[in-house]
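S1.2 Input.
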Amino acid sequence: MTTTGEEHTAAGTGPWWWVRWRSAVLDAGLALASAAECGGEGVRFAHDAGLPVPIGVVFGVIAGSVLLVRRKWPIAVVLVSIAITPAQMGFLMGLVGLYTLAASELPRRITAALAAMSFAGMLIVTFVRTHQGVMSGDVTMGDWFVPFASITTAIGMTAPPVLLGLYMGARRRLMESLRERADSLERELQLLAERAEERAEWARNEERTRIAREMHDVVAHRVSLMVVHAAALQAIARKDPEKAVKNAALVGDMGRQALTELREMLGVLRSGNGADGRVSAAASSSASLSSSSPSSSSSSSSSSSSGSAVAAVPLAAVGVAAAVAASRAADGSRAGAVSGAGPGVGGVVEGPCLAELDELVGQSAAAGMVVALSVEGDVRAYAREVEQTAYRVVQEALTNVHKHAAGAKTYVRLAHRVSEIAMQVENECPPEVGAGSSVRLPSGGNGLLGMKERVAALGGVFVSGPTDAGGFRVSAVIPA
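S1.3 Output.
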C-alpha cells in the first residue's frame, strides 16, 4: 500500500484502505465526477471510432471510475489516464492522479518517469488535434500556434499537479516529523516524571532510614548505659549507699542527655518543608505537567495546520525542563540524605564530633567497663559527616559491648592518617559467661547494619566479626 502523507493510525475508522470516512467520501466524489466526465467524452469517442454510443459511454465510465483507487494504486490511475489520453478523455483523472503520485512516498524517479509519459502523451495528442483543426480550417492561426498550444497544454496539464503534489507531500512529511518529535518529547517527559517520582521516593526512604539510624544511635547507647547503671544501683543500693547515689545521678544525667537529643531530633522533624518536601513538590508539578501535556499533544496532532504541530514541541520541551528540575531536586535531596543532612529549615542539627570521644569513653568507664582509648597521628578537624560517622561507629560498638560482653576489657583505637581516618573497637572475651545476663539488654540486630550503611555512604570500609581470642572487633576506615 502506498501512503500519500496522510496520518495513518492503527485505530483508523474508514472502510477498506481509507483511514477516515471523509477520505473515502472525497475519493468517491472525485471518481463520480471523473466517471461523468469520461462518460460524456465517451460519446465523441464513440462517434470518432465508429462505435455504438453506449459502448463509448460505458468505456468512459469504467475508465473514469479508476480514480476511486488513487490512494492505493496511484501508478495504475496515472497509467490509465495516459492510456485514454488519445481518446481525449480523463483530464480530471490525469490531474488528480499526477497530484496523488507526486504526494505519495514512491521513489521520485517513478514520479518523474510517469509525469514525463503523461507530458509526452498530452503533447502528442494536443499537437495532432490542433494540427487537424488548423488543416480543416476550424482554427485560423499561424503555424506557430500548433506547437505553442501543444506545449502550453501539456505543461498546464502536467506541471501544476506534480508541483502541488510534491509540495503537499513535503509539507505532510514535515508535519508528521514534527508530530513524531512532539510525541518523542512527550514520552521523554513521562519517563523523566516517572524517574523523578522514583528518585523522590528513594530520597524519602533514605531520609526515613537516616532518621531511624539517628534515633537508634541516640536511644540505644544512652538507654543501655542507663540500664547498666540501674542494674548496678539495684545491686549496691543497700551495701554502698554513696555509690548508689552516684549511680543514680549518672542515670539522671544519661536520661537528660537522651531526652535533649530526642527533642532536637523531633524539633527537626516538626520544622517546615525540607528537602523531602521540595522533592515532592517538584515531582508533583512535573507529574501535573505530564498529565496535562498529552491533551495538548493530541490536539496538535489532530490539527492540519503546521502551527499547531510546531506548538506541541515547545509545550513538551517545557514539560521536559520541569521533569529535569524535579530530577535535579531529587538528586539534591539524595545528596543531603547520604551526607547525613536533616530536613530542617535554615540549618541542620549538629551531631556529635570526635572531640566528644573522651566523654563517650568516660561514660562507659563510669558504667563499669574497663576501656582504654588510644589515638595515633596528628589530630585534625574533618568534615561534619565524617566526624559524626566515626563517633557513631565507636558509640555503637561500645553499646554492643555493654549488651553482649559486659565486663570485658575493651580497646578503642583511633588513627589519623593522611587521607583517611581509621577506628577500631575490640573487646576481649568476657571474664565470666553470662556475667551481664541480669541486665537483659534487648538487641534489635540493626546496630552493625546501621554502622555499615553509614560508613559505606561516605565511601569507607566497615568490617566486624569475632576474634581468635573469643572477643569481638569492629573496624572502619573513612576517607578524610
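S1.4 Remarks. Residues 1-11, 272-349, 433-438 have pLDDT under 50 and may be disordered.
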